[in-house]
Amino acid sequence: MKLLMNCKVLIASVIACSFMFSVPVFAQVNKLSDAEIASVAVVANQIDINYAAIAKMKSKNSDILRFAETMASDHKAVIDQAVALVKKLGVTPKDNAVSRKLMSESEKTKRMLRSKSGMAFNKAYIDNEVAYHKAVISTVEGLLIPQANNRELKDLLQNVVPTLRTHLEHAIMVQNEISK
Amino acid sequence: MKSYCLGPLCICFCVIFILNSCSTATPKKVHNVYTVEIKQMKFQPAELVVQKGDTIVWINRDLVAHDVTEVPDKTWTSSPIPPGKSWSLVVSQSADYYCSIHVVMKGKILMR
């Protein structure tokens, strides 16, 4: 009976978790302005740079360190492009519900990552990278690109998607490698 | 009389000399230059057929830096190519290569 209850709890947890990850972050948000979209883009990239910084401090695994290095340099390059574009357009990135939610979620994730070490850290970091890139790709394609008004902002977001997909593919490869 | 005979003879020698020169001259080998664009996180084209001595130029048209590195031994590498920049290689043998920054990006050089 106790085993059955545990199974039920486990199944309920799995369903809850899968629902959490499958519901896009943008499901309940209103239309974003270009200034708000720029803010989401910068925050989403900065969050992954912050995760990479933790990985570089805590991991000794060469695959993890190389992946983290790539995340730090690529997301910085995207931020630089976004900042250059908003300057050119005369837009000031504006804080909003999506960027605030991304930031608050990332604080929890950073606490979780800092609490782990060794192999447990490597697994937690790369699992989070897989989940995070899936969520960001979904947000960029499902929310930011459709809602962007300015052509150049839309083009920049579209150009970022292949980079994010490559990061996801790379993260899955590292995930498989370290789970061997 | 003698001078009439020497004229055509000289012309014949000249023609033979010219024809002989043409037939024995080694044709100058022309080396081609090929371009591989790095865009949308792919090497385009991913596979290139070239001849020994040809040059391949990789141009980075992406938002992020890439490199071009031989696999499996890393016998040559471009080092990071920033966006908008390029790097070239004179081909001496067939090779597989990848981007060591984004390890899922792969390409191939086939030497005829």
Description:
- The complex is a heterodimer of chains A (180) and B (112).
- Chain A is mainly alpha-helical.
- Chain A is built from 6 helices and no strands.
- In chain A, helix 4 (97-114) packs antiparallel against helix 5 (118-147).
- The longest helix of chain A is centred in the C-terminal third of the chain and has 30 residues, at 118-147.
- The model of chain B has no long low-confidence stretch (mean pLDDT 86).
- With 112 residues, chain B is an alpha/beta fold.
- Helices cover 21% and strands 34% of the residues of chain B.
- Chain B has one helix at residues 2-24; strands spanning 33-39, 42-44, 47-50, 55-60, 69-71, 86-90, 95-98, 106-111.
- The chains are: A mainly alpha (180), B alpha/beta (112).
Distance between the termini of chain A: 35 Å
- Please outline the major beta sheet of chain B: 4 strands, mixed
DSSP, total strands of chain B? 8
CATH architectural name of chain A: Up-down Bundle
Count of all domains of chain A? 1
Average residue pLDDT of chain B: 86
Envelope shape of chain A: elongated
Quick one: CATH superfamily of chain A? Ferritin, core subunit, four-helix bundle
Features:
heterodimer, A: 180 residues, mainly alpha, 6 helices, elongated, B: 112 residues, Immunoglobulin-like, four-stranded mixed β-sheet, 1 helix, 21% helix
